[in-house]
Design a protein that fits this description.
The chain is 27% helix and 25% strand. It has 339 residues and is of the alpha+beta class.
């Protein structure tokens, strides 16, 4: 799915019962239709790529019939096609006769990404966050063997990576720890708003990625950064609403995870001041007590890294969209000041 059926978008509810297995890119071209959704033409000779998500269907026959109605195949809005790309066979939708006039050069989305072009994350980030978390609610505790890929990576176009290793439940010292609400949604929102790379957990983690030296999430993280000039990693976490401050940065006991880039702390302070967001001390969550993702990125991957613990009071878009907006503005401004 490459448009409004993707997780968090306007029609993502129609993918309920399907399993998001990975992000996927296919040779082709993506176009604006002027109707609030895109249309893709898939062509093996194309120089461009269309970026989207690959889903596994549990009840394929009924789900395909439902999606055909949603996509208007009978009226000629879209037509369903079956493709085989990179050894993977899947269904997707190309423009039907009613959309032939949209397939023009002036309507081309050159990035090939609806997320980076006209996502709901840009037009209504609160609605996007709520949609995204509603979808994630169904998979918080799904096991990888049942649900598919443990972490979802979305490729960006700026040299900064957001990670959300606790977007779903995770096991620490044989105890299941609950998810940190809206951290995955924040990562994908920031991808749409700033073009950053994102890696977030997609189902239950058998071992806490922020506690153990070795975990599938860290292995995937190492694969993601390989060959990419990532300038900074921001690891997003959530803390309780009882905390007095909004954001708690963690950069090690003596800023060692910044790898000499102490000016990032000045940018955090400046961004927080401009958005009315309060900062806690660096010693509250230093990200140094276990093998955190932040420590791993700095020591093992050589990437400056910051852990951001975000107060739950700012992660309630439904009940307090104003506070959520301040949080989003703070993160966006900080990322843009870095990149």
């Amino acid at each position: 799915m490459y448009g409004t059926l993707q997780r968090g978008e306007e029609r993502s509810r129609f993918m309920e019962g399907c399993v998001l297995t990975t992000t996927f890119s296919v040779l082709g071209r993506l176009y604006h239709t002027g109707r609030g959704y895109p249309a893709a033409v898939f062509d093996s000779d194309s120089k461009g790529m269309v970026h989207g998500e690959l889903y596994k269907m549990q009840d394929a026959e009924n789900k395909i019939a439902e999606l055909d109605k949603v996509e208007g195949t009978e009226s000629g809005l879209f037509r369903r096609v079956e493709l085989d790309y990179g050894g993977v066979s899947f269904y997707c939708y190309e423009p039907g006769t009613l959309l032939d006039g949209c397939v023009r050069e002036e309507n081309l989305i050159r990035s090939g990404s609806w997320r980076e072009s006209s996502s709901l994350a840009v037009t209504d980030p609160v609605a996007f966050a709520v949609n995204f978390e509603n979808g994630m609610e169904k998979v918080y505790k799904k096991l990888p063997a049942v649900h598919g890929e443990e972490a979802i990576y979305i490729k960006g176009c700026t040299p900064l990576l957001i990670t959300a290793p606790h977007a779903t439940a995770h096991v620490r010292m044989n105890k299941l720890k609950r998810q940190e609400f809206y951290t995955g949604a924040l990562g994908v929102l920031l991808h749409s708003l700033t073009g950053c790379h994102v890696l977030y957990t997609n189902c239950q983690s058998g071992c806490d990625p922020n506690y153990y030296d070795e975990s599938p999430f860290k292995k995937r993280l190492a694969e993601v950064v390989r060959g990419r000039n990532i300038r900074l990693l921001i690891d997003i976490h959530g803390t309780g609403a009882e905390k007095e401050r909004d954001i708690f940065p963690g950069v090690g006991e003596s800023n060692e995870f910044l790898l000499g880039n102490e000016h990032y702390l000045e940018l955090i302070e400046r961004s927080a001041d401009s958005c009315g967001v309060s900062l806690g001390g660096l010693d509250v969550f230093p990200a140094a007590r276990q093998m955190t993702v932040t420590k791993f990125a700095a020591r093992s991957l050589g990437i400056p890294a910051i852990q951001l613990e975000i107060n739950r009071a700012l992660r309630r878009p439904s009940s307090d969209p104003v506070a959520f907006g301040r949080l989003l503005d703070f993160l966006r401004i900080f990322i843009e000041s870095v990149t």
